[in-house]
Design goal:
The chain has about 220 residues and is of the alpha+beta class. The chain is built from 8 helices and 7 strands; from the N terminus they run βαββαααβαααβββα.
Amino acid sequence: MKFLEYTPLERINDFLDHLSLGECTIKGCLEAYSCKHTGTDKKLSLSLEHEILDYLGRSSDTDSSSPVDHLLSRSSRKTLIYLVLTLSHMYPDYDFSVVKAHQFFTEESWDSFKQIFDTYMFEASKEWIEANGDGSLLETLKEAMDEVVKLSECEIYSYNPNSDADPFSERGAIWSFSFFFYNRKLKRIVSFRFCCLSNLVVEGLLPSELGYGEDEEIFDDMDM
């Protein structure tokens, strides 16, 4: 996997690097990768393939609706390996198990991504318009990614691991999302992770220290 530099992505990354919204901060990052193997990718790819095949060989689940059923397809295994290789490049210090990771990937549509983005990035989108005034954040994001991976040809995946398999977790995280936009023809992937952090927790302040009651909402000023 080779990291690809694209100026349109960097513009959004600069905006979402540390967007303070009072008691919380929005952070987001877009990264583009070519799926061509570089360095140790080939060795890791073979290791991941063997891990999948070994898992399939040990699996006694013959139910056609089994979540591992799609891994019988070489094309599906290849896609999963690309996704895990992307994760490995994003977090080189984290050891990803491909068998474990596949349980947390879900195929999405643009509409499902848009719904999540509109809901959780509402305040960030307002800040974007105030700062730039040249179109919505989502439209700018869409245009930037389209330039890299042609969204109409992409498969979209979300990655929602449990706490034991989550390299994205940060202190004070209120919510976080990770999406991958994969163009099979271009052999490119764009990853987009975005999260919301509580400034109170990050700064080491607990709600009890600030006089909040148990039933009071700390984040009333954030629309979601």
